[in-house]
Amino acid sequence: MSAEATNPGAPIRRRGRPRIDLRRLGRVALLGPVSRDRLPDAIGHVAEAHRAHHPEADLSILHKAYVLAESSHRGQMRKSGEPYITHPLAVTLILAELGAETTTLTASLLHDTVEDTEVTLEQVREQFGEEVCYLVDGVTKLEKVDYGAAAEPETFRKMLVATGDDVRVMSIKLADRLHNMRTLGVMRPEKQARIAKVTRDVLIPLAERLGVQALKTELEDLVFAILHPEEYERTRALIAAAAPPESGNPGAAVAENPLAAIAENVRAVLRDADIPAEVVIRPRHHVSVHRVRIKRGELRGTDFGRLLVLVAEDADCYAVLGELHTCFTPVISEFKDFIAAPKFNLYQSLHTAVVGVEGAVAEVLIRTHRMHKVAEAGVIALGNPYTADGAPVPPAAEPADGERADPTRPGWLSRLLAWQQSAPDPDTFWTTLRADLAEDREVTVFRTDGGTLGLPAGASCVDAAYAQYGDKAHSCIGARVNGRLATLSTVLSDGDTVQLLLAEDSASGPSPDWLDHARTPAARIAISGWLDAHPEEAQGMYGSQPARRRPEPQPESRADPAVTRAARRAATVVAGRPDATVRLAGCCTPVPPDAVTGFTVRGGAVTVHRQECPAVSRMQAAGRTPVAVGWGDAAECRVTLVAESFGRPRLLADLTEAIASADAAIISATVEPPSEQRVRHTYTLQLPDAAGLPALMRAMRDVPGVYDVNRAQRPAAAV
Prior knowledge:
Number of helices: 28
Shape: globular
Distance between the termini: 51 Å
């Protein structure tokens, strides 16, 4: 359940219609019984907004859904003291304003009934049909009593899988989170921060990928206000100071606003060219202004907004561009054509910048009205993409590779659905999901057989190999990029042609170094799985191909002395092997008090694994006899952690402060040079008590900018 409204943002406005303040809906008094032939007054705004986009819509199903939702939630109150029904009403109004079709609005009204009331999915199916039932089920949370700490990641996994079959599931979830973020004020500060971080790491990237900019920008501002209140207030003050004073003289307002002056000149140019167009000023939201200030240091008068030029046809967009570049001085470096090459989230527009009077520079967006609707509402603007003229899309309309014919199942979603099947562990899924969603750009590369591969920006030939061949890519030995031989570490650019070369021996496996070059979760999970399943082969690679972060494990004198000492102190071999050399497995990095078992490897050494390590079951299945091992009396332990993060000022200081607050001593630290604005930190730490390791890892993950913290997959370099 949700809380009280706190931080209003800018609602979407439609020309020719009165402004509807979405945030006031939560305070609309619910009226008494109504006649059967009209909607209750409490959802009058929803009906009005829906009819504005769908004039012929049948509102009777909304009436029926509202009656069920209101009666089932009756008596439930929000923490603000308002009737709970105000929440589904507000969520439904958000979607109605964005143009969602009737089925989505029906499911939105009912989205909490199965989760919070006695209504069952079967009742929803009987009264509203299979489609509505599927949408309601898709956004229904899993119970903590059944899943414990895994409830949140598993709920998101369930929603994403459902979104793969019907993108409207995520549309409802995004609107639901937006209203909850607006009404977060009565929550405890720590709970506000936790919800805001999940919104930042998961839901905002999903809103961006689905093209729902209207929801994404407001979510960004709400998260910004909670997680960075001082910076938010500073930005708010800058925006307020830049706003022109209220004046009854429009000419004076234009004179004081350089962006308004350029807008007037643009209108005059387009009138003279006889190009019908609407020119408006789009104010930047708070996070956008903050980013511009960080980028430029000092804000210009035109940095608080951009010009939006709306026209009727695609050809008019280019006509407007020609006139602007002819009559103004263009800033060529700012030109981008997202009409000829749309973004992967359906976004289309021309971007440019022109120099106005006195050197003022204005950014200009040029798009059709249809493009603007899609830019604001993304997949929601598509209505119901799974029907054609009221009939389901025939199976023949879907290509053989399973990719949907419609654009609501883009490559990133297909890749996500594929790798999540290989990540059964909730923690692995959760951290991998956040890392995957952090990849905010895509490249398209061409295969030599005529097909294409969609990959995140910064992907290498390793990623391309696993995207094309799956587990067969284990035997990849090289690649040709644009006809020239290239290493598997080669980063691919948009438009490259790649040919992957596979070894004839399909039994060969990947090098551990591939993990350094893999950007996609599918590649990383597949490589890690193979290395876990073949620990002896992986150890052999360490010895035969020494490389960065690959210490040779065989002669004791050449092994990492700190790791060896820690293993000798912590683990003792029982079973009559007191003099055996003991080594902690790099695949699972056990520490006290993990339940452990050991296996004898080449040279007579004993490698210690966590009992739940996949390598243990595989070696037992292969007939290997385990060796009993146990931890010594010392509670302290030494462990190597790898933190993946986005680069930012003071990141290293904040990480070391988080480590120090957990009473851990830093034995050694390595910070790799930034790559694609990402930084990898490797810390070897001494903990006074191994039981504090989970709390330490959580504290490091909570540092802003850090998106993943894991135990090292291989022993750390010598310290």
